[in-house]
């Protein structure tokens, strides 16, 4: 994808998925504002991009506040003259079951993922509208936000909220030529290494350098580099008509998440009382309830038992 002359911000891009996104955008010709909370990590990421012939600068600050969002946009404008692409990738985990999750656990995750996405998108859109040439908002969601995940009330809630915001922004920003999409990646990172169902396969891959086909294809999990292509695609002119979507990518699999739809309906003149719902439920709804959590192939489940 030719991104020559474009300028991108990638939050949380000092390492892992964010660094893979930043490098891919730079390879396409975009100048990149790298963001991380650690100066050394950010500087190393910038050095790697520059060593490959790209252009990059660093902004060291935690995502969440309006001040950080404004600093990121200002860095893009001051160093490269404009802004065309925002990738909101920054994230943290504070996993605990509901009854053990503290206010601090909840607020920390929601502040970075949900509020950070909102503040950065708002500042980027203000710049896009000022330039009058459109723009790209690419927000990083998660399968956990689509289906839920044990121990991740804060994370799942924030990621579901991100997809909801993207759908709203797609409507609000259409006239300005600004697209908004969510990407739900699955990749081997420091965050996924802690997930019990993935650990045996990741440990094996560290020894062999290979993830089995069932993981790459059926689960759709691979390397951060496997995800980066969809970021560059959505940032490019080729994706000018794609907006409001939630796209899954990982390993050898690319997929599109559906928007929620009503799957079963019933009608009753004058509305439903509790007793009338109880009467209609078994025949109309009981056999069509949705599952929760991700569903994995039997081959994967067998390894983790």
TrEMBL record:
Lineage: superkingdom: Bacteria
InterPro entries in UniProt: KR_dom, NAD(P)-bd_dom_sf, Peroxisomal_Beta-Oxidation, Sc_DH/Rdtase_CS, SDR_fam
GO molecular function: oxidoreductase activity
Ketoreductase domain sequence ranges: 6-189
Keywords, ordered alphabetically: Oxidoreductase
Keyword Lipid metabolism: no
Pfam entry (one): adh_short_C2
Recorded family membership: Belongs to the short-chain dehydrogenases/reductases (SDR) family.
Protein name: Putative oxidoreductase
Annotated source species: Gordonia rhizosphera NBRC 16068
Lineage: Bacteria, Bacillati, Actinomycetota, Actinomycetes, Mycobacteriales
